[in-house]
Write a structure and sequence with these properties.
- Helix content is 24%, strand content 21%.
- By secondary structure, the protein is an alpha/beta fold.
- Strands 1, 2, 3, 4, 5, 6, 7, 8, 9, 10 and 11 form an 11-stranded mixed beta sheet that branches.
- Helix 2 (141-152) packs across helix 5.
- The longest helix has 23 residues, at 228-250.
Length: 295
């Protein structure tokens, strides 16, 4: 368990199938309003049975899958979790495989991202205050190691490491695009982890992804083209493993005091205190606090 004095709070972002968390007690729904609007849905909050951690769950697309990958309010989602005290973030995401060795049903704990999104706001620092956070290693290594250990306790096959290419969607990729992404060395393809991971880094939240492989994308000529029906069929089987991973992780959250996300803003904010606009200060008070007070 973490040796930090801060109470551990695991935030889980994923599909609505994760709502079935019988391993939590004192469960409540929490509505959160943020400076960036409302998150995708109310946040489910509960205590781990037999453990010390609190767990927050937020359905990325809203219950009933109401928001497409491009219309998710990623800023409000990450802000809401931070405001509720999150100390660790687990992102559970459906992906397509770009590698022969990664088969539908496999779990992948990725460690890199390639951003091919086009329409999404990817920063909290876009008006009135500027910050440039390092993002060379976008996944917290301590979280990734703990997620991998938790995933190995399930019956699923698990791959440690790999590159996730995030496309805009909502359409699946073309065959030409799929082959291009394979030539980049990418391992899986999805639509949701960016800008989510970037915003988690700006919010100083240690972040890791558990990718649930549902298909071979469309590069594999022996496979049919990707369909929603096929994806959901495999995802429904995978979600059981994802719940098991979240439960195991919540019982053994890592010490993330040395995570690259911790205190990253201390050397990343470029705007001086005197030049910070009052509006920006008010909008980011939950994040930058007294470190960037306007003079």
């Amino acid at each position: 368990m973490s040796t930090s004095a801060t109470h551990d709070v695991l935030a889980v972002i994923g599909g609505s199938g994760l709502y079935e968390m019988g391993w939590l007690e004192d469960v409540e729904e929490v509505s959160v309003s943020t400076p960036f609007g409302l998150p995708s849905d109310v946040v489910l909050r509960g205590q781990v049975k037999g453990g010390d951690a609190t767990v927050l769950f937020l359905p990325r697309h809203g219950r009933g899958h109401r928001f497409s990958p491009s219309t998710i309010n990623y800023r409000a989602n990450i802000c809401a979790l931070k405001m509720l005290g999150a100390t660790h973030v687990l992102s559970v995401s459906a992906v397509g495989s770009l590698r022969e060795e990664i088969e539908p049903g496999d779990l992948v704990v990725v460690d890199q991202f390639i951003d091919f999104t086009k329409r999404r706001t990817s920063t909290f620092f876009d008006d009135g205050v500027v910050a440039h956070v390092p993002f060379a290693d976008p996944v917290c290594p301590f979280m990734a190691s703990a997620v991998h250990d938790a995933a190995r306790s399930t019956a699923a096959r698990v791959h440690r490491g790999g590159t996730y290419v995030c496309i805009e969607g909502p359409q699946f990729s073309t065959r030409a695009e799929s082959h291009m992404f394979r030539s980049f060395g990418a391992h899986v393809i999805g639509m949701t982890n960016l800008p989510e991971a970037k915003l988690a880094r700006e919010a100083e939240l240690p972040y890791a992804t558990l990718a649930l492989t549902t298909d071979f994308d469309c590069w594999r000529v022996t496979e049919e083209a990707v369909s929603v029906e096929a994806v959901i069929a495999v995802l429904n089987r995978n979600i059981v493993h994802a719940r098991d991973v979240a439960k195991a992780l919540a019982h053994s959250l890592p010490d993330v005091s040395q995570s690259p996300a911790r205190h990253v803003l201390q050397k990343s904010i470029m705007t001086s205190a005197g030049a910070t606009s009052p509006d920006a200060q008010a909008r980011l008070e939950w994040l930058i606090g007294p470190r960037q007070k306007a003079e």
